[in-house]
Amino acid sequence: MNGMSSRIRGMLVAALLPLALSGAALAATGTASTSPASAVDARDLADAYAYLLGRAIVLRQEQTDLREPGVAYNTIKYNPAGKADFVNPNLDVAYLEAWIAVDADTPALLEIPRVEGRYYVAQILDEWGEVITNINERNYPNHPYGKFALVAPGSRAAIPADSVRIELHSNKAKMLGRVELKGDNAGAVALQRQFKLSSLGQPKVRASAPPLAFDNKSLAGMEIFDHADEIIDSALDVSPIAPQMQARARHYQQIARDPAQRAALAQVLRDQVVPAFLNFAVTGSGRYQNNWLATIGTGTYGSDYRKRTAANLVGLWANTNEEVVYFVVTKDADGQPLNGDNAYVLKFAPDERPEAMVNAYWSIILVDVPDYRVVPNPMNRFNFNSYSGLKSAPDGSLSLLFADAPNASLAPESNWLPAPKGKGFSLTLRMYVPKQAVLDGKWFPPALQRVGSATH
Q: CA–CA separation, 65 vs 8, rounded Å?
């Protein structure tokens, strides 16, 4: 997952979980019923569906983005730093994004400023959600800033002599840039505005495939197979098993033209495939421990197109774990949904504190459910990070309180994040440039302990 910015960047775990659990017992395998759907190979259908859905989610986002006023290919959108009035905001960075379009004769030029003493990255992803590269001082030590020429596959177009050539996977890509605020919003914004993107000509931009009208709770239906050719042909997929998966998808496109077979497929899709995939997306697509879901194994997927689709669904534009690992929680230690009527403590042992597990910084944000918005409060306190001045216990442990009111007996007021009274909420813990223990899944945040009400 990236910073999980505004609009349709995937519904968070809490949104999907109720629907997913309702179908948790329905595995994406064949059915033993005697209905007409019993002849359908549900596992094969599920594989083809999951494959197409991953690309359909990206197509939907592209079309959503480009309907926004002022958004165009090869034009950067500079998001306001610290703005909290959109879905699941990332309040730790000055954020920028753009859609890149190139052709064989027309590269695009990305210019990155010199950034020192704070985290930054220009993340480039392909049209299936695979990370092509992350531009920063760690990956490009000999050219951490300056000009980067983004070219079409196999292009031999001339590029500036002082630029680094980066070959894309297809003729479009998504760029997400982040500059750490680090308590200096003005300095971060000044750097954000120095990121520049331009086209070295007039590229021929292929129109997107027809939009599919679906949401993240019910997902697409059989119409996704009606557009299989257009979805597949819209962008090259680097997955090593793309050919056979595309053949499966086109197979169902063909047989769905028969009304009787279409009805049987639609029943299996609705009753088995979609619920089972939702369940996989929120509990099986990453590592699940202490009721936290970790985005381990995202960014580049190899043959695991199901994880790629799940990442696109739950948090589109997931980055590689070397850059960031996300932990999302919607339940307490007893498996009960988080609710602002209760008080919860997240206690890190002295040797398990999050700052000891990152090489950059960490942050945690609370958003309400089902709106995924920050909780208004007089302090405008919506998240904590490495620079929040949190108070430690005498033994060196760190306790964070999530409740609708502070309680000094549970945690210092400086360590309290307001929760929505009478409403559900979720937490997202971001670990930037995580250490090996996080990458290996050996470190997890502890379970969230319910400790009563906020005032008792």
A: 9
Structure-token match 């999951």, residue found: 50
Q: What tokens does 273 get? A: 């495939």
Task: Burial-class residue 429 by CB neighbours within 10 Å (0-12, 13-18, 19+).
Answer: buried
> What is residue 436's DSSP assignment?
H
DSSP run (H or E) holding 261: helix 259-268
Pairing of strands 324-329, 424-432: antiparallel
- Say how far apart CA 153 and CA 170 lie, in whole Å: 6
Rounded distance between C-alpha atoms, residue 425 and residue 14, angstroms: 8
Burial of 276-304, coded b for 16+ CB within 10 Å and e otherwise, reads bbbbbbbbbbbbeeebbbbbbbbbbbeeb
Alpha-carbon distance 314 to 216, whole Å?
9
Q: How far apart are CA 384 and CA 429, in angstroms?
A: 9
- Positive or negative: CA dihedral 408, 414, 417, 422: positive
Q: What is the pLDDT of residues 103-125, one digit of tens each?
A: 999 999 999 999 999 999 999 99
The DSSP symbol for 316 reads: S
Question: Over the stretch 400-442, which tens digit does the pLDDT of each residue have?
Answer: 999 999 999 999 999 999 999 999 999 999 999 999 999 999 9
Q: How many angstroms separate the CA atoms of 288 and 303, rounded?
A: 21
Q: Encoding tokens for residue 83?
A: 């703005």
Q: What residues does 328 pair with on adjacent strands? A: 293, 428
Please state, in angstroms and as integers, the Cα–Cα distance from residue 211 to each residue in 205, 207, 223, 270, 323, following that order: 17, 11, 11, 20, 32
- Name which of 195, 75, 207, 204 is nearest 152 in CA terms: 204
Burial of 396 (0-12, 13-18, 19+ CB in 10 A): exposed
